[in-house]
Structures are given as C-alpha cells and as structure tokens.
C-alpha cells in the first residue's frame, strides 16, 4: 500500500472516525483505524462493534492495499506535522508516514483482523437538511440519560412522520427533563420510529459539525428495525439501534398553564449562572417567584451563602413559584435560539416548560424540585 494526500484532509478524516475507535481489552484492534486503498478511493474506517464510521479520503494511490494502525497514535502524529503533503506506505507490517523532513514508522495489525462493517440496503429512506439536523441534535442530546439502567432513555427517540406532523420528531429524556425538536424532511413520506443510541446521536452531530461550507446541504438516512445508516459528504455512519419501547413522553407535556413569563434569554441565563454559585451542591435548586412585572430568583447554601435577584418579565396569569435545577435549566436555555424565552408553569409540583419566542418546533421541560 502506498498513497499520498494533504495533511489537512488526513487530519479531518481521522478526527471524524477517531472518536469511535477506543481501548478494548478483549479486542485491542478496535483501537485501530483501517486504511483501505484501492485504485479509485481510500477509506478510513473505525468501529466499536455497535457503531462504525467509514470516511473517504481524497488521495493519490500508487499501490492499493490495506492495513490497520492505532487511531490515536496516527491522529496525534499527523496533527504535529507542519508540511502540506503526507505520504503513507506499508513496509514490513509497519506504516511509514513521511511529511517534509519528518518520518515515523507506526506498528499495526493486518486488515484481516479488523471487524467487517455491516452494510444495509433495506429500510426506510429519508432526507433532511444537514443544518436543521445538526441543530436539532444539539438541542435534544443534553437531556439524555447518562446511565444504562433504562437503555431506552440513553437513546434519542426518532419518529418520522408521526400522526399530526410531517417531518422528523426527535426527543430525549432522563426522567428529570425532556427535550423535543421537530424538523422538516426534504424527502420521505413513510412513518417509522426507532431509538438511536445517544453515542450515535453525538457522533452524527460531530460529523455534521466538521463539515466545510462547501459540504452537502442534505443528509441521507436509511433506517430499519435494527440499523441506522447516515450518508453525508463522503462519510457513512452505521449504527445498531436500541431495543425496547420508548415511553409515551407526550403525556407529561402540559397543555394549559396558569402562569407564562416572557423575558430576555441572555439575562435569564446570566442570573441562573449567578444563582448557581450559591445553590446547595447536589440539589442545585434555584427558587423562582413570578409576580407583577418581574421574576425573582433566589438560592442559598450553608457553605457559600445566599443570592437573590429580579428580572423584568411580561407575566400573564397567576402569581406562582417553583424550585428548579439550575444545571437542567441551563442545558435547555443553551438550545434556545433568539432573544427571548418563555417559562410556562401550572404550580410548584408540575413540570415547567421552556420555549423560544415564535418557534413551536422546540420545547424543553424541567421537572420541579419538590420541597
């Protein structure tokens, strides 16, 4: 195997696939990337058996071949290079990497030992705007459950063309908060739903975020009962899906509210961050009181002290109060676009809804801290 490419192209491709490769005591080769060169194309492949990424590298191939090397070692070395052109050559079961005056030999393993990436041609096909998909994933992934006690909650629920909406609905919840985002599909009429692993959702977001301004505008999705395949800008991501049934989260979304307060998103975010400095560690409680033309925030801790402040707000409805987790609130506010945000609530024991102004495609719900 012998090929040459630009340093920037190689570094970009390695950054795309590198997050998937990782240490595995039982199967060390999963820490490697497969470099697969034929006369026409060069593929860089990484897998952890649950998730795989195939990225295409623009390169000039002098001799076809394939070999695997540690992903971290190759990526770190390439990032240190200062030249523009990189030559890769397989010599005596070592990958020789040359750039300007720098040369290294990286020990690896034969390609025959690398797991085969499954290919899927059957399933439901959809197309979605890359920008909308990327932003939507960023809005819902913070609410993912961080453990596998209930595996379905560690994944993002994808519902294509559900009843009442033509498009893709993504939702996530860890039972303390819930995020839901609706985006339009550019192609695909069938109805289908599945649970996509949280790690996969994060890798899709990483893939879309790394794209250049000249990248494709749409993402192609192929999904069936067991597998999700994403095609985008010269890369292919293949992932298993989470078994199980996603809870009917729509039941906890309040339909009517007793209090609605509209206020500056930037000001609310700033005040919650300030209040967080004086909240009890582990509880993270901030008290909100809605009255008149302002929202009062307060927090206290036996270790750090007390905090109180007020924000001007347009309040409609009854006076109200609620205790909320500041970390969950900030995660939701980070997903809101625009200058204003609305907090909607019923009482101190019911969920609080965060919603952008004039945008019904996104909502974020936080469960209250009961005293």
From TrEMBL:
InterPro entries: DNA_clamp_sf, DNA_polIII_beta, DNA_polIII_beta_C, DNA_polIII_beta_cen, DNA_polIII_beta_N. GO terms for biological process: DNA strand elongation involved in DNA replication. Residues 1-118 form the DNA polymerase III beta sliding clamp N-terminal domain. Residues 128-248 form the DNA polymerase III beta sliding clamp central domain. Keywords: Cytoplasm, DNA replication, DNA-binding, DNA-directed DNA polymerase, Nucleotidyltransferase, Transferase. SUPFAM superfamilies: DNA clamp (SSF55979). Its main location: cytoplasm. Residues 251-370 form the DNA polymerase III beta sliding clamp C-terminal domain. GO terms for molecular function: 3'-5' exonuclease activity; DNA binding; DNA-directed DNA polymerase activity. CDD domains: beta_clamp (cd00140). GO terms for cellular component: cytoplasm; DNA polymerase III complex. SMART domains: POL3Bc. It is found in: Cytoplasm. Pfam families: DNA_pol3_beta, DNA_pol3_beta_2, DNA_pol3_beta_3. It comes from the Bacteria. Belongs to the beta sliding clamp family. Confers DNA tethering and processivity to DNA polymerases and other proteins. Acts as a clamp, forming a ring around DNA (a reaction catalyzed by the clamp-loading complex) which diffuses in an ATP-independent manner freely and bidirectionally along dsDNA. Initially characterized for its ability to contact the catalytic subunit of DNA polymerase III (Pol III), a complex, multichain enzyme responsible for most of the replicative synthesis in bacteria; Pol III exhibits 3'-5' exonuclease proofreading activity. Forms a ring-shaped head-to-tail homodimer around DNA. This is Beta sliding clamp. It comes from Candidatus Magasanikbacteria bacterium RIFOXYC2_FULL_42_28. The lineage of its organism: Bacteria, Candidatus Magasanikiibacteriota.
